[in-house]
Amino acid sequence: MSKLPKENQFLDLSDYGRPAAVVIAKVLQNTSFTPIHVTIGFIISGILAILCMYHQYFMATGFFLILKSILDAADGELARIKNKPSYTGRYLDSVSDIILNFFFLLTIWHITDSSLAYTLLAFAGIQLQGTLYNYYYVILRNQNNGDTTSRIFEDKVPVALKGEKQRNVNILFAMYKFCYGIFDNIIYRMDREAPEGDILPKWFMTAVSTFGLGFQLLIISVMLALDLSHYIIPFFIGYSLFIILFIGIRRFINK
C-alpha cells in the first residue's frame, strides 16, 4: 500500500526496496509478527552491515545495507496492511535510522582513516538531505490525503493511536526530537513557505528522492563495492550543496 494515492505517486529512487517490502508484508500479514518486529529486523541488518564494513567485507556490507532498506520499507507496509499505524513504530524507525547512520559513517571513518571533523560534517549533510526529502514528501502526503503518521511539524507529542501506550509514544518522541530537532529546524528555516506552496511536480520529487535514505545507502554500497570507500565522506559533503539547489527550484516552481 502506497503512502500516496495512485494519481499522486512518483518514481521514488530511494524506495527501490518497496516491491520486496510488499512481498514481505503480505507474507507476514496473517502471522503474529508486528511492524516493530520488522523494525528490529532492519536494526539487526544494519548492525551486521557495520560489522562487515569494519572487517572490510564490502560485498556483504552492501547486501545488509540493501536488506536494511527493504526491511525499513516493510515495517510501514505491514502496518498499513494490518491497519495498525502507530507513532511508536514511526519514531522507533526514525531514531534507529539516525543512530545506524552515525555508526555507518563512524565505521567508514575508521576504515579509511579520514578526518573525524569531515565525518561529522558528512553525517550532518546526510541528515539534512534526508530531512529535506522527508519534509517535501510529508507535505505532499498531507496535500493529497496520503499517510499521515508522519507530520509536517513534529512540535508536540501526538496522542497515542489504538493499540499503543502513550508512555512509549512520549519516550520515543523525546528521543526523536533530541536526534532530529536541529535538522528539522534548519530545513524549516531554509524553506518555511513550502507547506503553503502548490503541489510539487512528480519530476521534482523524483529528483529530491536521491536524498532519501535508501538511495544514500545504495550509494554507499556501490562505492564500497568499487573500492571507493575513501570518497564516501567527501561525496556526501559535496552532495549536500544540492540542498540549496532543490530549495531554489522549489521556490521557483511555487513562486
TrEMBL record:
Q: Does the keyword Membrane apply?
A: yes
Which top-level group of life is the source organism from?
Bacteria
Q: Which Pfam families match?
A: CDP-OH_P_transf
Which residues are listed as membrane-spanning? Answer: 36-54, 91-111, 117-136, 203-225, 231-249
Sorted alphabetically, which keywords does the UniProt record give?
Membrane, Transferase, Transmembrane, Transmembrane helix
**What protein family does this chain belong to?**
Belongs to the CDP-alcohol phosphatidyltransferase class-I family.
The name this protein carries in UniProt is CDP-alcohol phosphatidyltransferase family protein
Task: Tell me the organism.
Answer: Sediminicola arcticus
Lineage start: Bacteria, Pseudomonadati, Bacteroidota, Flavobacteriia, Flavobacteriales
